[in-house]
Please model this.
Amino acid sequence: AQSVTQPDIHITVSEGASLELRCNYSYGATPYLFWYVQSPGQGLQLLLKYFSGDTLVQGIKGFEAEFKRSQSSFNLRKPSVHWSDAAEYFCAVGGYNKLIFGAGTRLAVHP
Amino acid sequence: NAGVTQTPKFQVLKTGQSMTLQCAQDMNHEYMSWYRQDPGMGLRLIHYSVGAGITDQGEVPNGYNVSRSTTEDFPLRLLSAAPSQTSVYFCASRFGTGVSYEQYFGPGTRLTVT
Model:
């Protein structure tokens, strides 16, 4: 069955600290992988995506993610978190017509 | 471009009432979809459309109807609202039918069914 697991429901980091959000997926074929961010009361915005090629992908707002096929993971990272990064983050895996989302990780940033 | 727009932003319904959530996009996108977002469950696909006149079911279609008479509009109908349909609803669109195309989301409709 196709699924996405985000093991961390809530994460709190201090401003300026590094961040890693975990994402594991189960998918029968080569996956298309995505990270989205949702600010409070807003829709989702695409941070980055992976289809093929270089397994380290760069996105907007200084985020990057690394695809590890052997671990079925696509973890999101940022070297230095800003207070404006506080939001909910969703990992998603896609096939032809459908995206499957994880349950999300809510990030809080302490000053 | 306005992008993806949704109306209303908030709605309260009584059990058994019907209503239509509106979604429109001005980007000439082929693919449009509806998701519901519930706490701890992420977004789940309700219905999607790959073009005018073509719709299909997603993961959680029961209790919802859709139609696509134009490229721009993709309304979601609740025929007889139930408390289990209390959720935040997002409409999304993308240029092509494959997931490689970036998907754009509307701002959402928060629906409460009492």
Chain B touches chain A at residues 4, 31, 35, 40-45, 48, 50, 56, 58-59, 90, 92, 97-100, 102-103, 105-108 (CB under 8 Å).
